[in-house]
Amino acid sequence: MPRHDSGKQNILSAALETAGIYAVAALLLLAGTFVSPKFLTGDNLLEILAAVALLGIVSAGMAFVTYSGSMADLSLPSIMAFSGIIAVASLPLGLAAALALGVLAGLAVGAMNGFVVGRLNANPILWTLSVAFFMEGFMRFAWSNNQLYPDSAPGTPGAAFIGIFRIGVGIHPPVLRTTPLQGGSGTVPLVVVVMFLMFLLAHFIMTRTRFGRESQLVGSSRATARASGIRVPRVVFLNFLFAAFAASVAGIFLTSMNKLGVFYLGQGYDFKAVTAVVIGGVMLSGGRGRLSGVLGGVLVIGLLSNIMQFLGITAFRQNIVTGLVFIAVVGLQQYQLRAKGRDYA
Amino acid sequence: MSAGFLQSALAMEGVSKRFPGMLAVDRVDFDVMPGEVHALMGENGAGKSTLMRILTGSFDDYEGTIRIGGREARVHSPAAAKEQGIGMVYQELSLARPISIAENLLVGRLPVRWGGFIDRPQLLREARACLGLVGLDLDPLLTVGEISQHEAQLVEIAKVLGGQPCILILDEPTSSLSRDEVARLFQILRDLRNRGLAIVYISHHLPEIFEIADRVTVMRDGRRIATKEIHEVTPQSLVQMMVGRSIDEFYLRREAKVGATVLRAEGLTRYGFFHEVSFTLNAGEILGVAGLSGAGRTELARSLCGLDPLYAGRALLLDEPLIPNDYPRNAARGLVYLSEDRKVDGLFLRLPVSVNLLAGLRGRSGNGSVVQRCLDELAIASASPEVDAGTLSGGNQQKVLLGKWLATGPRVLILDEPTRGVDVGAKRKIHEAVMALADRGAAVLLISSDLPELAGLSDRAVVMRNGRLIGELSKAQLSEEALLLAANGHLEDCHAKA
User: Fold this and answer.
1) Which residues contact B326 (CB under 8 A, 6 or more apart)?
2) Which residue of B347, B371, B386 is in closest CB contact with A224?
3) More confident residue, B412 or B154
4) Above 0.90 for ipTM, yes or no?
5) Which one of A158, B115, B340, B491 is CB 3.0 to 4.6 Å from B471, fit for a cystine?
6) A343 touches chain B (CB under 8 A)
C-alpha cells in the first residue's frame, strides 16, 4: 500500500521529510551565485547534473540496499568496473550484445551478494567488502593487469560504445539552447536522462510494488518480516540485484566516458552513494526514506562539489568536506531519532 | 506497617511527566517505607512504567519533588538514580549470556589490581556474596547461558542488590517463572523486606499482590487513583479501581460449533524441544495448550507453521501436507502464528499502525478500509493509523498484532501468549475477537501461561510437559486448578476430580 494514500497528515509529513534536503540544495544554489557569476547559468547547472548523473544512478540502487536494512553494498564500485570490462571485452559481438553482457555480469555479482546476505545471513558490510576486494584481484588477474581499450575506429561497435556517454538527447530546453555542451549543442546528455529514468523506476518500484512495500518491512525489522510470512531472503536478494543493475548501468557509462575498461573505475562511488542516500533521509537502520530525498542528496553533493571547484578546492580536499558532511548528517539523524523519543526503535 | 513517625525511604510528591501530546504522569504522590513491599498496579498505559522510569533517572524534565530518605533528590540521569540507592529489576533480563555470572554481577565495578588487571579472588568473593543475598549457590564462573531462566532472574536481582540499593523496584519479575519458583522468589523478597529494604512491586497478577504486598497503589490514566493497605482491598475492588468499571464475569461462556478437522498433526518431532506430538484441531474450536514455560509449546507452534525446523512427523492442513520451513507458503494457505514477543518479531515498531495491520496481507488487497475495520473491531486507541506502532501502549500494540492476522482471514490461528503484559480492558477485547473468529469457523490453537485465560477461553486443552503431549482435558474438566495440576504432571488427579 502506498503510504501517501492514507491521509493528508501523511502527505505533509512526507513532504517535510524531503523538504530539508531541497532547502539545503536551494541554499547552495544561492551561495553559488555569490561564488561566481557563471554559476547560475544553464550551462553550469547542466554540467552539475552531468557530473552527478553517474553518482545518481548508483545511489538509486544503493538506496534499495539501505532501505531494506542491509546498510550498504560496498561491492558496487567493483560491479561498475566489472560490467564495464565485460562490455568492452564483448564488443566484437556487437554493441547490443556487449551492453547486455556487461549488465548481466554485474547482475551475476549482485545475485551472489543477494543470495549470501539474504539466504545465508552474512553481514552485508563484511560480505560486500570482501567481494569488492576479491573482484579487484580477480579483474587484475584475469586481464593480467591490463586496461581494455575499445576499438575507436569510426563505424565499429567500439566507437559506438565510446559515443554512449557523449550522446545528447534531443530535448531543447529554451534556457539551454544558447549554451553548447560537450557532445552536442543545446542537448541534455543521455546519462542525465538515464539518471532521471532510473530514479523514476526506483521510486515506482519502492512505492507501488509489493516488492517495494516488503522491502520496507524487511528493512524495518527482519525478524518481524519473517514472522509476518514475508519471503525475506527473496526480498533481500532482489534488493542487491537492483543495486547491481544500477551499478552496471553506471559502470558502462563510466567506461564509455573513460574510453577504457579497467579494475579501478568506480572507486569512491561506494562512499559517495551512501552519503547521498543518507543525507537524502534514508535511515541507515532501514525502513525509512524515499527516493525523492536521495535525488536531493545527489544534487546537494553535485552542487557542493561544483561550488568547491569554483573556489579552486582540489579533489582531495573535496573528499574531506564530503566526509565531514556525512559525519554531520549521521549524527543529526541519530539526534533526531532520540529527540522524537524513538528509543523503541 | 506504615507508622507516621517513620521516615519514608522514598516519597514522590506531585510528580508529573509530559510527553508530546500527552500527560503520561499527572501529579502523582507515591511513597514507600523501609521494610515495606508497596505494589504498584494499573492497566497498561496507566503510567506505572513512566513513573518508575522517572525514578530511575530516564528523564531530566519531570516536575514535582522526589525525596529519598527524607532529603530532596534530583534524579536526572540513571547514574544519579543509582547513586541515590535506587535499583530496578527490569522485566527483560539485562544479563549478557556468554559472560560469567560473576562478571555480570559486578559489571561496571569489577575489582582491579594495579595496571587494570582483574582481581580474580576478590571477584569471586564479591560475586558469592551477591548470590548469597538471593539464596543462590551457583558457581560464579558459570556463564549465564548455562543456568536456568529462573536462576537468571535471581542473578538479575542479585546484580541490582549488589549495588546496595535502599529502594528496590521489581517490574513483573515473575512473568517467566513457574509457581514453585515464584514462591522461592517471594521468600527472598520477604527476607529483604525484613532487613529494611523498601520494595516497589509492579505486577498484573492479583494473587501475587495479595501474597507479597503490604500496601497497594493503583494508577489509571496517569493519575493515582488510590493507595490502600492490602487488607482494605479485595481482588474485585482492585480490578474495579484499575479499569474504572466493574467486571463481573470476565470470561463469557460460549458454545463452540465444532466442525470438521482442519489441522492434523502426526508425530511432530524436533529433537531436544518436542517429541512425537500428535493432535487434531477442528473448525470453530479453540484448543488450549497447557504447560509450564519450557515445556516446548512455543517451539512446537513455530515448527508447525514453518518458522523453525521440523525433524520428523507431518502436519496436514485440510488434508494437504504443510511444508516444513516454509512459513510464507503455509501462511498464504491460512495457517498463521501470532508471535510470543511483539517487540522481537511481532510488530514493526518504527512503522505506522496501518502498515503493521496490512503486513500480513502482503499487498494482496491492502487498503484503508481494512485498516479502519481493524481499528474499529479491536477498539485500538491510536491517535491516527499513521502513528508508529511503537508509540502505542502494550495493550494496543497487542491488538495491532492480532489485527494483522485477523485481516488475513486465517483458517488456523496459533496464539502464543496473546495477552501477556496487557491490561484488563485490552484483554477482554482480544478474547472477544478470538471467540468471534472461532464462531466464524476458524480453528484456534491457544498457548498461554495465563491459567484463567486458558481455562476460560479453550473448548478443549492438551497438556504438554517436557516436550511431550501427556493428555487432554475436555471442556468439563477445564479449570484453573486442573490445568495447573496437569501442567505439573498430575494428570490423573484432575481426571479423578472431574
Assistant:
1) B306
2) B347
3) B412
4) no
5) B491
6) no
Interchain pair B363, A287: CB under 8 A: no
More confident residue, A115 or B149: A115
B320: alpha, beta or left? (left if phi > 0; alpha if psi -120 to 50): beta
| Mean pLDDT along residues A48-65 | 96
What CATH code would you report for B270-497? 3.40.50.300
Nearest CA in chain B to A14: B386
Whole-number Å distance between alpha carbons of B452 and A319: 65
Q: Which residue has the higher pLDDT, B281 or B241?
A: B281
Indicate if the pLDDT at residue B205 is higher than 80: no
Domains of chain A, residue spans: 52-291
pLDDT at B1: 44
Asked whether residue B244 carries a pLDDT value surpassing 70, the answer given is no
Å between A224 CA and nearest CA of chain B: 4
Question: What was the pLDDT predicted at A217?
Answer: 94
Residues of chain B with CATH 3.40.50.300: 10-243, 270-497
Q: Do B349 and A221 touch (CB under 8 A)?
A: yes
B420–chain A nearest CA distance, Å:
18
Q: Is any Cβ of chain B less than 8 angstroms from the Cβ of A231? A: yes
Q: Nearest-CA residue of chain B relative to A7?
A: B386
Cross-chain residue pair B371–A6, CB shorter than 8 Å: yes
A144, three cell numbers: 593480467
As a whole number of angstroms, the distance between CA B361 and CA B376 comes to: 18
Cβ of residue A16 closer than 8 Å to a chain B Cβ: no
CA distance A212 to A1: 10
State the virtual CA torsion across A283, A286, A292, A297 in degrees, nearest 10. Answer: 40
Q: Which amino acid is at B439?
A: D
Q: Which phi and psi angles does B153 have, rounded to 5°?
A: -60, -40
Q: CB-CB: which of A6, A7, A220 is closest to B351? A: A220
Chain B residues whose CB is inside 8 A of the A219 CB are: none
The residue of B335, B340, B345 whose CB has the most chain A CBs within 10 angstroms, and thus the best one to mutate to test that interface, is B345
Is A223 in CB contact (< 8 Å) with chain B? Answer: yes
Does residue B269 have a pLDDT over 90? yes
Stretch A209-237: mean pLDDT: 94
Q: Is the pLDDT of residue A316 over 80?
A: yes
Is a pLDDT exceeding 90 seen at residue A12?
Answer: no
One-letter amino acid at A81 equals A
What one-character DSSP code corresponds to residue A150? P
Q: What is the mean pLDDT of residues A24-53?
A: 89
Contact A224 B346 (CB under 8 A): yes
Residue B245 pLDDT:
53
**Mean pLDDT over all residues of chain A?**
87
User: B466: distance to nearest CA of chain A, Å?
Assistant: 25
CATH architecture of residue range(s) B10-243: 3-Layer(aba) Sandwich (3.40)
Interface mutation target, options B58, B337, B340, B350, chain A, most CBs of A under 10 Å? B350
Whole-number pLDDT of residue B247: 41
